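Recap for those who missed Tuesday's class. We walked through two folding examples back to back. For each one, the amino acid string is listed first and its predicted structure tokens come directly after. Nothing is annotated here on purpose, so try labeling regions yourself before you check the end of the notes.
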Amino acid sequence: MSESHENLRSSSYFWPAEWHPHDATWISWPHNPKTWPGRMEPIPDAFERFIRTLAEVEPVHVLAGPAEAAREAHKRLDGAKNVRLFDFATNDCWVRDYGPTFVIESETGKVVGVHWVYTAWGGKYPPFDEDAKNGARICEAMGIPRVASPLVCEGGGLETDGEGTLLTTTSCLQSASRNPERSPAWITQHLSEMLGVTKVIWLEGTELDGDDTDGHIDQLARFVAPGRVVVAARGIEVDTNIESLQSMKQQLSEVTDARGRKLELIDLPTPPPRWINGQRVPESYCNFYIANGIVLVPTFQHRPSDERAIGILKEQFPYHRIVPLDAADMIWGLGAFHCGSQQQPRCAREEMGVRSEESASFNPYAAG
């Protein structure tokens, strides 16, 4: 069963939902062949499409990586409109997990970067020393204040509605490979202090087959509006993910959010199982990314399920343009567009929890 915690101590920070207007999106240029063993060749093209698509609607900041990768990134992207490259070394491309989580300081409205401890998903993929430094590098480059957290945490394990509710999983943050000496109560309170959330909903026993993150929430359940969540659901009758996905939905049906609302749950069926080199790949349409005025949706070259997912997300984001983008090669690295991006929100023009007219246009479901 899930656990939820509320009445947490107050925080000076506010973590806006992903649909809050962005100043920029951060992406890391791919270069590690171990991430896509035997299938590296199409990946730079896939990331270039990803970057150029986002650059049509907002600035994109790209970590160019080590020397050879940086040369390729500059060759492809120098001169691209709305794209800025940073010559920071990286070990891998999953900036969602090692980049800072950007929050807004309630009193000043200024953006602050929360820099978690990064250990490559519990030490699974060394070396990760350069990636672990990039939260600090990003904040320094942008002149953004940084708060260093002692919590081992990845950004893909956190999901918010922008109104004080946090979704996460026990299998990530409470795992022995990440925070063995931290009690659940301490982790919950620390998340509240770092992110300004007032209720943390912990989900248990939820993980897609083939996933190497120990159950990141951004593959499983995503807010599409306050009080409304799309949940990964079985796409066919026989699938090894069925039990965990049904359990997740049941847990979500039993909780309320920070404002006391029962969650409205919308099924987002997963594609049929697919294997590459004998390994199941964790394909999920929940790995979409919300940018300024668009929602970038991963597709997996299975037309019936791709079209169904696109239709569902069109219904959930009537004020955004839905942009399908092929992720069939990218997913061999066990992540898609949300895993490969990190939003930097625009400075707030209003008090915490009260949206400006501009922000409200990106969240038409917000109550006044």
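Example two. Treat it independently of the first, because the proteins are unrelated.
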Amino acid sequence: MKIIDVITTPVLIPFKKPAKWSGGIRRNAPALIVQLVTDEGLIGYGECVGPTIPTIRTVVEKEFKPFLLGKDPMQTELILHQLEEYVLNWSQMGYYAMAGIDIALLDLKAKILSTPMYNLLGGLYRKDVRFAGYLFIDDPLVNAREAEELVAKGYDEIKIKVGREVDYDTQRIKEIRRAVGPDVKLRIDANQIWSVPTAIRAINQMAEYGLQLVEQPVPYYDIDGMAAVSRAVPVPITADEACTTFDSALKLIEKGAVSAFTVYPSEAGGLLKAKQIIELANTYGIWCVTGSWAETGIATMANAHLIASSRNFLMASDTHYEWYASDVLSQPLTIENGKLSMSDRPGLGVELAPEFNGLAKDEIREMVFYDDESAEQYQPRIGMLL
């Protein structure tokens, strides 16, 4: 069997409502769907997400495609090694593109072997994959009502975006806690917007309302600062933007900076490289959750296979899936009581909808760090004193 074509399709999924966070306002989920076509009719599905879909598409089509055509899709290690060597001097962007190829190769390989993808990643460890409910920045009472709705749907962990203003965020957490009661776990994500002293003040202020976890409170490059925050607050810290590769994860461990990793297959270069980070974390007793770049059902399902086959996902992971007005799948994913049940279907276990449900776009240029509600077109300054 040989790969005879690589098809890329940019898609744009509208959010049900604008999603406000410390870096701007998101209204859509852009992604690049990748299909690896073989001479025997099998197709592997993958997905790239990241900061710039046009650039990622160019990498896949112009740079990676020549390496893929004519290859045996079972040669996963060889293909991905060639791509990794090729992007050595521009790996940060190259890994976003590699991630989609990695997923598509594993989907194809699992289909050839007639087995679910999780069996290529360690085998089924858990049948149900847990996700956290997701809240973006809004009026405290609006967030409280949304939190009640998430609990009514069965979510027992909720992730809350913070980072615009400390006292306002504290009021939001207070109202959310009042609405959901003492048993629902709450975690916050500042997306590296705080300085070290601001992070310590903010976390200590909000800790009164029972926080499970705080994600990336300070800039990604300030590992010493992250360690200082971890020592100064009573809440476990997880690294997101600071944990994108095996090397960055190792530096966090060496500094004793965090208690958990927020792992992104999209940033790590795919599921297999993400699995390396997860195994490193497991060796050092560090918990993991997956992060979300606002993936479609393809990469959401890929992340679920990774979680289902890994031992140290004790907490619920991220997904924006319930914020979407539509999806590219013929049968949308079903998340019930905050859980996605894994099937025994080969590969990812999903199929693309005809014409992607009308979500395909010729060109997508959507800036993540942008706020069109601000006269200044708000741009974040990471590490700023708020």
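Answers for example two:
The chain has two domains: 3-116, 119-347.
The chain has eleven helices and twelve strands.
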